[in-house]
## 1
Amino acid sequence: MPQAPSRDRIDSAIGALQRLSEVFLDRRRQLARESGLSEAEWRLLEEIAAERFMPSLFARRRERTAAAVSRVLRGLVDAGLIAASVGESDARQRVYRLTPKGRERMAKLRERRERAIAAIWRRFPAADLAEFERLAAGLAEALERYAGRRE
């Protein structure tokens, strides 16, 4: 049976995870800013680009109010990055799509992101990334299960 980690090892791992999380989020904000976007705008543009965007579902998944999502959408329309139209099958639905300016902005953002991936992630051996992915997925599942408990 494997030996349980010491409390010092656990604290060190938690510290490393916190640092990684903070640096990752900071870098995401930086990428968004470099592209003239907020993180919220980037997330919405990604969803719209994937053609699976439903404002109410997006708001629920991101734990945002519908009003907050609507404000960001209006800003993206005003900036000329997306266009909104009435749904063909349901006039109550709004359909959002990237404009040429929005597609160009997303292409530049993706290019910057790919450069960062090449500079950082591609230098790690595939086996190390596979182990990291396994550990991170297991940790996320355990945290989700624990957070779902009612104590």
Note: The longest helix spans residues 7-34.
## 2
Amino acid sequence: MNRLHFIVIGKNDSIVRTLVRVISAKEDWTAFGCRETSELYQHLQEVPTAIILLSSGLDAATENEIMIEAVRITPTVKVIVHYGGGSGLLYNEVQMALSEKL
């Protein structure tokens, strides 16, 4: 299986840290957490990334900007809006995103 790298962005540091921990606990998954879009775009340019997870605290304009800019930088990246619901929901959201065609 290929290693999947995630970027988690959100305004609540505790939630971002928790998501990074949950993601990184899964074999072959790694994650980077950030609060600012500038950090996200820089990391996206430096590290091959499969999924961007939008966490709580981002406004709609920022979410839309990320969806457009992230795909411009990495056309194959999947963007998932995730506001909670436990690790089971997260894993299902990821599997669903990965199964979708570009």
Note: The chain has four helices and four strands.
## 3
Amino acid sequence: MGFAAWALATGAAPSLALHDNYLALLGLGISSLAILALPVPYIFRWNWETKYFGASVLSLSSAAIIGIYPTLCVAFYGSPPIFLRFLLVLFEFILIFGWCRRFTDIYKNIYLKKTFFCCIYIEEPCGIYYSQQGDKKVIESLLNFKQFPSSIYFIISSLIAFSLFPFATTISRLAGVPFIHIFLTIFATPLNLLFLGLATRGWLVFYFYPMKIKREKNKPIYVDISSRPPKITI
């Protein structure tokens, strides 16, 4: 994803020197960080604590680069008026913020309703276990919370993006960036919601609430991916 970010940024501004192309430099930085981080779990012998398990889930958020970077390229290197580029970024931000806010709200409600919360974080004498099956049961079965964007989002964005192909040359000239950036800005918008929503959920269940629990209980929090959750009395 870091190299994809670099390619998108350099493609949008091919005449710009690399040291002046901050989006491209950020992409290379992401790639470098990923490579350097690869041996970390083996060197420090990560176990099944949530703070370690969650690292792999949070890395999923980098997949949103496919949608966010084209938008940033249009905003930074495109030729439309500045207020239109600002509105594009603002719209993208509001859309993502609103989607991710859903996750913070639902888990806040779960935290306040201890019956649900204790089904997700199960206390044992040696530690506390985050139950993936319990989380799934509460979120999907009991609260009917949709973690993924509806298929209508993908259908609409795909139809709009592909319908622009006959006008690719004209649109590219007006936008001041290659057509692929315009296409991905529209086509990948639901992917931004998908991956950043999952990353928000990962931050909440593997870091935010475990930190609150550890302050209260002073016990390590581990991940349990397979055990059946306890029955819930509503």
Note: The longest strand covers residues 127-131.
## 4
Amino acid sequence: MRTWAPSDVTRGQLSLAVCSVICVALHPGFVLKWDEGGFSNYGIHAKTVVPYSLGFLLAAFYSWKAARELGSGVGPVRVVSILLDANSVLMVLALLSTYWYSRSVALKEAHGVIGIATMLFEPLVALWCFVQLRGSTWDLTLLAIAATGLVLAAIDFLGVLHVLFLAQVLTAGAFGFLLVHAVTRLSRPRDPHPESSPW
């Protein structure tokens, strides 16, 4: 049965990537500096709030849509459908919490919790995707990049270096590629009667 899930996941990840590049191009000073901030800075400024919001909304929508395309499924297909729904929820929560996080300590902490949840979710899902794909060298490289992003996020959290944006880019980028690859592989119809190759 044909499914548009791989295309939807790809659209979502590309939308987030393109909108992120637009945000950085409009105001590189938020993140491209030694004492860099996080990507959330783009959600509270008039110049970048539209592409920022659009990126998260499209990523959430296409993740949700891909989960619907895969249906209930069984085994790994069911798991990846749940993961896509979880990703969609995290995208929406991250977006909504961005708008008000600078208004109070409580809101900032709530946004921080969502950010930490996302930073843990993405490399863990990347690891799951790698296992399902039975890892090629390219997939292993992506997994290593996601792990590096997680380590950098921990370093930033501990206040050793302020490298949150770099951590977010590495983790989200590797996660996106592995997710697309895994959804593509898992949604591919299998031949119930495979024939032996004469070669």
Note: Residues 5-186 form one domain.
